[in-house]
Design goal:
Number of strands: 3
CATH topology of the largest domain: Arc Repressor Mutant, subunit A
Order of helices and strands: HHEHHEEHHH
Helix content: 55-70%
CATH superfamily of the largest domain: Winged helix-like DNA-binding domain superfamily/Winged helix DNA-binding domain
CATH architecture of the largest domain: Orthogonal Bundle
Strand content: 5-15%
Largest sheet: 3 strands, antiparallel
Structural class: mainly alpha
Number of domains: 2
Shape: globular
Distance between the termini: 29 Å
Length: 147
């Protein structure tokens, strides 16, 4: 393994940091266009994939469950999210998007140019290699993601 002071490793880390910063900046701007905070937009985006308990949302976003409760409360107040019983365990409440919430999440996702613009310059094969390398860095198995 290359030492952490290796110039190439340092350059890669700096580039990853620049990509992350650019992503967060655009995500915040896109969220604001939908009158959402970045945190609200991230929760809505997660719930657009599938309903989930607040503890799992907190784990996914790496924050305290109490923070998620407040975010879900605000999204629920706007009619974007609802709480419903988990069919597998009626003691657990799932947060789920409403139809309006799902439409908002889809519009939000569609307004994010950051991912589409730079990636458009890469071929399908290059995007696949990039995805596979990122998954490898994060310890995600290739079978877990669709082509």
């Amino acid at each position: 393994m290359a030492p952490r002071t290796d110039p190439l490793t340092f350059e890669v880390v700096e580039l990853i940091g620049a990509v992350v910063a650019r992503y967060h900046e655009e995500y915040e701007q896109a969220a604001a266009k939908h009158a959402l905070t970045g945190a609200q937009a991230r929760v809505l985006g997660l719930l657009a994939r599938e309903p989930m308990p607040m503890r799992r949302i907190a784990q996914q976003l790496k924050c305290e469950p109490s923070n998620i409760t407040g975010i879900v409360d605000r999204l629920e107040g706007r009619g974007l999210v609802e709480r419903r019983p988990d069919p597998a365990d009626r003691r657990v409440k799932l947060a789920a998007t409403t139809e309006t919430g799902l439409n908002t999440a889809l519009r939000l996702r569609g307004s994010l140019d950051f991912a589409s613009e730079p990636l458009a310059g890469l071929s399908h094969q290059e995007r696949t290699v990039l995805r596979d390398l990122l998954q490898r860095m994060l310890g995600i198995t290739a079978a877990a993601s669709p082509e």
